[in-house]
Fold these 2 entries.
Entry 1:
Amino acid sequence: MKISAPRGTSDILPDQIAAWQNIEQISRSLFKAYNYSEIRTPVFEETGLFKRSLGETTEVVNKQLLEVKSQRVTNAAEDAQFALRPEGTAPVVRAYNQYDIGREAFLSKFFYIAPMFRGERPQKGRLRQFHQIGAEAIGRGANHPLLDAEMIALSVSLLKAFGVSDFKLKINSLGSAEDKKNFAQWLRSALEGKIDHLSDECKGQYERNVFRLLDSKDQACRDLIQGLDIGTRHLSDSGRAYFEQVKQGLDQLGVIYEVSPHLVRGLDYYTHTVFEVSYAGLGAQDALGAGGRYNGLIEQLDGGDRRFPEPVGAIGFALGIERILLALEAQGKSVAGKVSLDAFVVAGKPEFAADVFGIVDLLRRQGIAADMDFGVGRPVKKQFEQANKLGAGIVLVLGEEEMKSGEVSIKDMVTGAQARVGKDRLVEEIKARIVRP
RNA sequence: GUGGCUGUAGAUCAGUGGUAGAUCCCUUGAUUGUGGUUCAAGUUGUCGCGGGUUCAAAUCCCGUCAGCCACCCCA
């Protein structure tokens, strides 16, 4: 029985890797420009971390955590429950607290490019193992509304740098934790008595997380919410002023956005600014990325810090790499490309294999991407076919005549031109002919 | 977790009860030191898996797994 990759996972094969490396490379250089440093956290964490941060009632924690079962529980300490991380923020905050990074650093800016795991039913743009590019800014120095603007601008800049166009940025403010609580209360009472004729799903949302009703796709539910005319009524004066400054920051940077009072997030920890970037051509899973502020999370995860006058603030976002690639594909901008080889060395006779091996090694030491045919005693023709398949720009031939004269034949595979060169001048002759894109 | 559609060669797909096919890829040859084009020949396979109906199943039925799409949720 053939074993295939687990449900909802996919292999990234060598012919697809160029697009991924391109995305990663662009990300790293842009993060550097914005002064974000890479952080790598474990692929699994104690389940409690996600329950406490994302919220016990959220879908992600309730139904989508992939738990890790240890076969060897040797003591009580190892009896903890583990889960593959469903998102990147909670682990980063955990590390931030664990090493008391905030003691030294006024503001810490992290980024990660890493796989995430959720036990969902796969569909377009939704996998069980998927990859996120994320950024988090945490610290006493993370309370300025201009940082919100920077975060949003950074996520937009990344997408543009990847070549994605026609995406839509929506922003909203949920207000402070207190604003959120008040708003939830207000929403509940405003909807009380009116939810009886709604669908079971809407009722469920009303119970679990009223905010979800705001971006419901259910028409009856939409109508009901529309009728409430929410606007910014849920925000306190200070919350509203903060949001205004975020918008001004975005205006200053020329970032185009749409304020959407109905934009909410599925994770409990968000406060104040939330945003989402979507691309309509992706189908049902149209979010390329999303993020927001999560000021209370550090303390909530026991990072309670009374040593400094300023509270610890935090904001972050994550982009889905697979979805970015889908968007690029939809726009006809996917990066193809294969690993190209500079030179392939052919043995005219099987007994020259060792000499060929030596030439290949010599070239590699000079930084020339070189290879040879490792088939046993294959005819020259087959070796050339191999060279062609590998996309070698140059083929070197070491045959009987070359062996006698101490030369090597060098053939340009594009023009077909061939010449003999002394071994001492081989490297410079090759370097002169290498054409790299 | 719910629903719809699909599963046949490495890939894309045809085949609706009677001995498994096409194209591309791949292999070999035309070319006894030279690829990419062309021409000729050849191999593709538990018909996703398990069970049932039938003289006979890729085809019909049931189950299961996987993929796709949507709901839900989200990146």
Note: Chain A has two domains: 14-175+235-330, 343-430.
Entry 2:
Amino acid sequence: MTTSAIRTASLARRERQKAETRQAILDAARELFVVDGVEATTMRAIAAKIGYTPTAIYHHFRDKDALIVELCMADFSSLGQAMYKIGRIEDPIERLRRMGLAYTDFALDNPSQYRFMFMTALKHPLVDSAGNVVTAPDADAYEFLLQTVTEGIEKGVYRPELNDPPELAQMFWGGIHGVISLWFTHCGDPHIVFRDPRETVRTMCDAVIRGSLRNVG
Amino acid sequence: MTTSAIRTASLARRERQKAETRQAILDAARELFVVDGVEATTMRAIAAKIGYTPTAIYHHFRDKDALIVELCMADFSSLGQAMYKIGRIEDPIERLRRMGLAYTDFALDNPSQYRFMFMTALKHPLVDSAGNVVTAPDADAYEFLLQTVTEGIEKGVYRPELNDPPELAQMFWGGIHGVISLWFTHCGDPHIVFRDPRETVRTMCDAVIRGSLRNVG
DNA sequence: GCACCCGCTTGACAGCGTTAAGTGAACCTC
DNA sequence: GAGGTTCACTTAACGCTGTCAAGCGGGTGC
């Protein structure tokens, strides 16, 4: 083994170890965020969970926000993939409906992540752990939604006055998001009998789509 | 002036002064909450604003939460009044539409309050500054909504499968809430071109109502 | 063998919500 | 009018948070 080969090998090992520690921090943070919530999770708790001191985390992430953003970006990626699977459906209306249901599944299966992704006012622009500006990771899914409603408009399936893609997109997105987020924040309210949010979303999707379509005939 | 008259007078003055201090705390807190947000506002800042030490606040409110809840209840009362003004409209569908628009106006005119009222998971049951359990102050407005959709169902204006008042109520409420809350959390996102939320809400109300009505003829 | 690198620790800082103890002026009683 | 009580408010502190400057120590490079 040449000197340079040893050098690169040991360098690689060090980097691998550093990456492992970094991943351990992410895993610990993820679990605590999900269980206790983002706000209630402390840097000290994350560090203790993996047997490090709190300051060790700062060698891998510039601050707590960077840690959060990193996890958040992975979640946006998951959501993007869930949306991507739907991309094949030809009919832009059926695709829209399926997107809504997939979005709802994602939200209810990952409540803690969803809270942070869509129920928190993130600073813009986002900054990653290296301090670089990061393109908003929700852009992909939103772009996909925008494209889907645009297709519908172009095919002439919507009522003629509904010809603004952003407005339509925000109406669909908002409608679903509202049912989900109300459930998250108020399902513990003893004065409100909450219906299953999946059912309510389905009903809402049906109603809003039916009310947006051009009357046939 | 009799002894007892003096006594009650001085007692009244003391109570008035205490009430004034209490109100000064509420006013200061309200302004800081609106400007800086609830989370970012510290007890120390509230106290400094009115020339007291932080601990003084604790003689009027059991903790920060109690202060928040007190302000929040006043806001729910405002919203309730806005809803009450609409009560006269006979047609339950037109009333529903008007409620949605009034709700939206309230939210956009009082963004800080709205955030706390509907975008934060409040502990249930709520506890006031004296430690008493408080009936959820959003119950009134929700009850009004529930009553309005129930009236519509009874009059047979909705599609026959839409016969569950809570589901309908949560669909309407959620739809509007979603557009508003998305705007609050994401309007700073440079990757999304946001439409005026009032317009989007109006479009959504129209669509969801149209899609919920029994087809005439 | 010596010096450097760098992942990690030590120990601290300022700020947070909150509390126990104390202060002092207004009040009531005698 | 003197003495005791009440109570709104202050002083000083506690334990917690996120964060940082400085230092340690084992592996690496020459």
Note: The CA atoms of residues 24 and 50 of chain B lie 7 Å apart.
